Amino acid sequence: MTDGRLTLLQLNDTHAYLEPHPEVFWEGAGPAFRTAGGYARIAGLVHRIRAETGDRGLLFDCGDTLHGTAPAVKTRGAALVPVLNALGIAAMTAHWDFAYGPARLDELARMLDYPVLALNCHDSAGGPGPFPSSTLVETPDLAVGVAGIAATILDKTMPPSFAGDLRFTDGIEELPGVIADLRNRGADLVVVISHLGLPQDVRVANEVDGIDVLLSGHTHHRLEAPLVVNGALLVQSGVHGSFVGRLDLEVRDGRVTRHAHRLIEVGDRTPADPAVEALVDQAVAPFREELAVVVGETAVPLYRGEMFGSSMDDMLLAALRHATGAVLAFSNGWRYGAPILPGPITHNDLYDIVPMDPEVMTVTLTGAEVLGMLEQNLERTFASDPFGQMGGYVKRCQGLTCYVKIENPTGHRVQACWVGDRRLDPGERYRAAFVTVQGVPSGLGEDRAGTGAGAHAAMERLLADERPYRGERPPAFRVI
After folding, report:
1. What CATH number corresponds to the domain at position 87?
2. Angle at 304 between CA 273 and CA 468, to 5 degrees
3. CATH number for the domain harbouring residue 363
4. pLDDT tens digits, residue range 191-222?
5. CB neighbour class for 189 (10 Å; exposed up to 12, middle 13-18, buried from 19)
6. Does residue 355 sit in helix, strand or coil?
7. Region 96-108 average pLDDT
8. Which among 222, 157, 97 has a CA at the least distance from the CA of 383?
9. Could you give the CA distance from residue 99 to residue 163 in angstroms, rounded to a whole number?
10. What are the tens digits of pLDDT across the range 330-343?
11. Before 468, cis peptide (omega within 30)?
12. For the chain, what is the radius of gyration of the CA atoms?
């Protein structure tokens, strides 16, 4: 075993935010907003730390990287490739990166200068998956073994096109063998990069011995200090590239003997790297004119980041009802999407709210189906088994007022639901609007129909009729 020093740098859940953008920060008086992120600033920070540490600094990306903004979606991920290659990333794993399908992610992976790792990704026919499980990275002092775990929900709750013929496990069964292989290949230290989510990664670290560091993604936690679980240091570093996690290690005889951690805000004082800034501009330039078109105005900040509802999703839901005349509206509880501050709303902002621009649909649901859907979603958000937690935030609803007890057992969390001033009737039928990505499960309801219009068009229509948008609506969920 070799002794030495190592600095690990972490990005997770950047969601293709190439440029600086508003970010939400939680303070004593409530949410505050300031500009953060941008790959040129990230590069400036990474290069400064590498100059300080020599070749002992390794940058890892925990996924949700190639999808989430207009330039990424319009180029099916390709716009990010030159920028990412300029950062000198050692390895990444994946989740929304599968949004263009496994074959496209395989193409993108071949364009990158570093591997996409997914030890829990398997061919449904029983063969090996298309992505390697691990890699060995040499530094001046140490050989660092790196194992990657992709999101386990890709074949469970995401659209079928994401996984295709692949299946995804939680990685617990496969990881011990990968760790043993890395040690046999000479690894002095084992780092796991994961997109399972923090509760799931705590479970993995508890059940699998031999992990020195676990870099976590998916749940957007801003950890001010690592969690220590079964000897492993767990780190997660926010969302949208607004933060970089830094973990400095001292290693002796194959064990971490000392560590120091910082969650670094990528703010206005972070110098940008000029070369990467030029690459970012090249990536965004073809779309600037189109994305700068003003489509409306908001009098209130629109943002995500809260468990039971958000002003950003309230506007989306209002647009669905406005476009269809439906009594109810539902959307997924997405965690990503940079805030939109009071003032003009641009076409670019609509991509930030829903980058896929899914079709607006309608369906007729019974009250019993609505209650069942909400109970399933609450279980997938708050399940006691971390691997039962397959959602983001709680499903977004409008037209409903629901009183819930989160501590109750499965199937008994919803205490009462109201539609306007009338109690939700299990036998009554309600027309609902939703967007096709994770809105209303496919097995529910009758008279399911497309409108032929996307979410962006629905939001533009609302903003044309409601200017400025004021968002004065009560929350759908009230915890009692």
Report:
1. 3.60.21.10
2. 100
3. 3.90.780.10
4. 999 999 999 999 999 999 999 999 999 999 99
5. buried
6. coil
7. 98
8. 157
9. 9
10. 999 999 999 999 99
11. yes
12. 22
